[in-house]
Amino acid sequence: MFCSPEKRLANAVSIFVITTLFYFFGASLRLIDELSLFWPLNAVLAAVFVRCPFLNRPVYYFVCYSAMVVYDAFTTNWGWQSAIINLSNMVFIIVVARLLLRYSRTQDESNWALNAFNLFYACLIGAILSSLLGSMGSTGPSSDYRQFISLFADWFSEQFSTGVLMMPFLLMAKWPQWSKLPAFHLSKIYPLVAVVVSVMASVVIGGAGSLAFPLPALIWCAIRYPLPITALITFLTGGTEIILVANSIVVIHHNVPLVVTEMFSARLGIATMAICPLIVSVSVDAINRLIQQTSLRADYDYLTGVYSRSGLYEALKTNMPTKHLPNQKLCVMLLDIDYFKRINDSYGHECGDVVLAAFAEQLRKVVGDEGLVARLGGEEFVVACSTCTEEKGLAIAEKIRQTVELTAFRYQQQTLFITVSIGLATVTPEKQTLLDAFNSLLAEADKYLYLSKRNGRNQTSTASYKELALNS
Predict the structure, then answer these.
(1) Distance between CA atoms of residues 168 and 182, nearest Å
(2) CA-based max dimension of the chain
(3) Strand 371-377 relative to strand 414-416: parallel, antiparallel, unpaired?
(4) 409 forms bridges with which residues in the sheet?
(5) What is the pairing mode between strands 380-387 and 420-427?
(6) How confident is the model over 54-90, as pLDDT tens digits?
(7) CB 337 within 8 A of CB 418
(8) Better-scored residue on pLDDT, 165 or 258
(9) Rg of the chain taking only CA atoms, in angstroms
(10) Could you tell me the end-to-end alpha-carbon distance of the chain, in angstroms, rounded to an integer?
(11) The pTM is what?
């Protein structure tokens, strides 16, 4: 965001500018009788105060209110009514922001602000309170009951629908990371095309039921697209439908001209419809995050951060570098930290965990992009890489062994040095699948690891060198 807790003057100026710009934009959308088709200012500022909780101070609220009053002083002749109308805007902004921030303290979800029901109720309460005050300020003390009800209905429906449509996207919007965007496929635009077609069908067919035509397409978007994209598409679709209804392009009543009560019904119907894909999108997002967390726990070792056995098998299918090249060899190294039990017995299991994590980090640094690292259990690790020759695999194994031997591992005030024994096996997969080749090599590497242990540890053993011991 553009605001920060330390820059108070910059915060005040930013809020004043945003308020003025969106006040001007909202004023340009006014319809007959000084009513607004959309009034985006309140939703925008409520989202700003939610995303920057440190702005929720009386001084910044006063800056917002002052910007509104100053704008009206130069562009309208509302007099004292301007003070009440703008106060009603502040009621919506403060109530919605405070309610959503209150919900945030009772929820652990990363997308707490997009909990559809919280957003629904916050906008509902904010719209009711804001509309009551704004309607009284607009009609004045001499107005009749019918005029007040008509104005309240329009004011409430606009504030509620605009808040529900705009705020999900405003709360989630951020600059895209272009380098991480997935590759484009034509099939990805099908849900968006379905939304456009359904809106066009609403125009052609008409009637009150046509407002719900885009709902299945929006739910399709919620399933296929990320949460921020779904929120943006829902906002644009709902806003388009409101504009079409207001201009009688979508006719929801064929006999009677458009009146406030019909606009009230259309806005509430569209806003309520917009909640449905939002609920689906939030649910899909939560399921996806749960799947990612479950996959992370299954595929990665919680202590060291390297692959688990099951994670390594999946990685061999998808991430194995330079696989299936002619004469390319699969190299499997089985590593075991020497005398690791002594570390646990002498310094405790916490020290052992620290050493394991640091050892795994060193292992990843040495192997880099040349292979995959996994922890099989205890102090036993495996490295799988593809090499042109067995000698290249042996060179990597020796680099690992020597790096570990020279590295000082620290725990509290203790400095520890460890060594590692390695068993190395290589094969050209040819007709074997990568997993079958890996499993056979793992069993073979285990034999050579035993050979390294039997011959004094801190060495690498392989088929070409029955007893290769390069002690430091």
Answers:
(1) 23
(2) 104
(3) unpaired
(4) 416
(5) unpaired
(6) 999 999 999 999 999 998 888 877 677 888 889 999 9
(7) yes
(8) 165
(9) 32
(10) 54
(11) 0.64
- Work out the number of other CB atoms within 10 angstroms of the CB of residue 49: 24
Query: Looking at residue 32, what is its pLDDT?
Result: 43
Taking the C-alpha atoms of residue 355 and residue 455, their distance in angstroms, rounded to an integer, is: 24
Residue written as token pair 């939560």: 286
The residue among 424, 352, 160 whose CA lies nearest residue 274 is 160
Give the span between the Cα atoms of 22 and 166, in whole angstroms: 13
Q: Name the strand (E) or helix (H) holding 196.
A: helix 190-205
- Find out whether 298 and 258 touch, Cβ atoms under 8 Å: no
* Sign of the torsion angle spanned by Cα atoms 90, 93, 99, 105: negative
Q: How many angstroms separate the CA atoms of 154 and 263, rounded?
A: 7
DSSP 54: G
**Long-range Cβ contact pairs of 29-33 (< 8 A, separation 24 or more):** 31/246
- d(CA 279, CA 427) in angstroms, rounded, equals 52
Contact call for residues 449 and 332 (beta carbons, < 8 A): no
Domain annotation for the chain: domains and CATH numbers: 8-297 (no CATH), 309-462 (3.30.70.270)
